[in-house]
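Appendix B. Extra example for self-study. Work through it before the problem class; the solution is given directly after the inputs so you can check yourself.
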Amino acid sequence: NAGVTQTPKFRILKIGQSMTLQCTQDMNHNYMYWYRQDPGMGLKLIYYSVGAGITDKGEVPNGYNVSRSTTEDFPLRLELAAPSQTSVYFCASSPTGGGGYTFGSGTRLTVV
Amino acid sequence: GDSVTQMEGPVTLSEEAFLTINCTYTATGYPSLFWYVQYPGEGLQLLLKATKADDKGSNKGFEATYRKETTSFHLEKGSVQVSDSAVYFCALSEGFQKLVFGTGTRLLVSP
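Solution. Structure tokens for the complete assembly:
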């Protein structure tokens, strides 16, 4: 099983550019999440989804958008990149919610 | 709101030493508690969990006991190895919406 797959692994963006971080899971999990990890700050929830067609904001949603058209895919969109969005982004999934997550290996994004 | 507080790192130990990483939490209800581990360049992996008071989670020689009276979930291991070097995150969940993470504690084990 591939688990949770994130692409790309690394990306450098210029201020104002847009990009989509891809996340796919092959475990048929209903719940999916996007977190960002900043040094010394732990992980902060950006958006989450409890099933196809249903998404909701987390703690730090500003500057991001998501969609969930299928159970497998949960892409994260950055519309106008800002230096404050430099971070490592993790996608995760869970069959029932409640904490037993499977994480992807992350995308390291730098905005210059 | 809910929060998790972990001890500051890095924690530096010699191989075969005893490990304790402290974790305390604040929650309005009765959360489930978790320890995740992150090895260099990788995503987080679930290490162990406990879902109710006095439960003990264990895995790979690591243990943690859910203490409701002290709102704590300290991670312990009797004899660490170099391969245990990683960042350890304590987390809680009060429902399906999200995990709340601590800031992480880096463990460095030397031979």
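Self-check: The interface with chain A takes residues 4, 32, 34, 41-46, 49, 89, 91-93, 95-99, 101-104 of chain B (CB under 8 Å). If your reasoning did not lead you there, revisit section 3.
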